[in-house]
Amino acid sequence: MALLLSLHRSSFASVLLGCGATLASLLAIRYLVHRYDHEATKKWWRKWMSRLFGESRRIIIVGDLHGCFDELFDLLGRPPRCPGGLSYRPGKDILVLCGDLVNKGPDSSGIVQFYRQHQERYPQTVFMVVGNHEMKLFSIYEAEGRRSASRKTSPGQPDPSGSTSSPAPHCLSIIPPAPSPSVALSPAAVTPTLPTPSQSDTSSSESSSSSKQERKKGAFRRMLQELTEDDMAWLMRQPKMLRFPIIPPAPPLSLSLSAAAAAAWGKQQDLVVVHAGLNPFLPLEEQSEWELTHMRNVLVDGRRGVEDDKQGVHWIDLWDGPQLVVYGHDAKKGLYVTQHTIGLDTGCVYGGRLSAVVLPGRHIYSVPARRVHCQPKSPLPSSPDGAVAAAATAGGKAGG
């Protein structure tokens, strides 16, 4: 009996020693992989980690681009060549742009054409939502005629000037809950009503800003000269909202969270991606196209959204889930993380940063703008780097 106990103890100790040695080896290899930038070693590491623990599919959501093509590649690239880059894996990671790809920056047409080609190559993992600047582009495109001498279809492609290039009659395209988020888009069966101009903006200086509006239209017209009919047809087919299956959020890392908040933070959530926001008083299926692309605040008494941030209250102050909403549109607030919302517009086109969140886990990645392309109407948050650090404390890990 004593001999059996001795053998049992020795075998148990051997197992523990073996596990410890394996773990130590993995940690040592991981250190070497990150210490020495050798691409073959990194590929070997990822290959064996995926075999051991399964391939992890990330959802990467990128904030407002506004034509900042170079910064997009900085953000998606691999460190150390791209400090702050998140090592995007095409076809494996799900990539989502949360609107406003165009206007203000140096290469709006380049971003549209690149992303169109990228989505056509990886249709199950590459998505975007439409922002207010795309909506403005659509309105000028429709008002001034679909075709002109300078806008032609791509060679060998059919003329999409008919109904196929019209915006979808619904304002939502939802990815329904499923075992995998890489499923085809399906339109929601709703036809929203758009607010009248008086609902969206009560500005009294409309007549005095006519020249400014003409300058803005000129920028969109120049953009239309660079985009083909096929580009516009593709862009106008993009959804205003995306919904992904239930995802586990990151564990709360901030000691300042209350016990109730920490418990709520740990619950699983659906992921919704929009450009501007959601009206807290309406179900997802009844959100209007205008609110999804333009809204900043909501009037509590009238229960409708407004773009003027001096009216009402910010919609996120009233949004209590259960969905996690990731949005852009509001560079004045910068990176803004709450329990149920993540705002990603960090003013890249204004010389700020381009930011992304990676789910599950809520890891924040950020790269600095290469230059100032446009002056902001309002000052950006004073410390974008500090905002990234604060977001990491609230619920994730800063990637750069």
Automatic annotation (TrEMBL):
Entry keyword annotation includes Signal: no
UniProt cross-references to InterPro entries, sorted A to Z: Ap4A_hydrolase, Calcineurin-like_PHP, Metallo-depent_PP-like
CDD domains: MPP_PPP_family
Residue spans crossing the bilayer: 12-33
Keyword match Membrane: yes
Region (Disordered): 146-219, 375-400
Domain Calcineurin-like phosphoesterase residues, every copy: 58-150
Polar residues: compositionally biased ranges: 151-167
Cleavable signal peptide: none
Any single biological process term in GO: polyphosphate catabolic process
GO CC term (a single one): cytoplasm
Keyword vocabulary terms for this entry: Membrane, Transmembrane, Transmembrane helix
Molecular function per GO: endopolyphosphatase activity; phosphatase activity
Name of the protein: Calcineurin-like phosphoesterase domain-containing protein
Taxonomy of the source species: Eukaryota, Sar, Alveolata, Colpodellida, Vitrellaceae
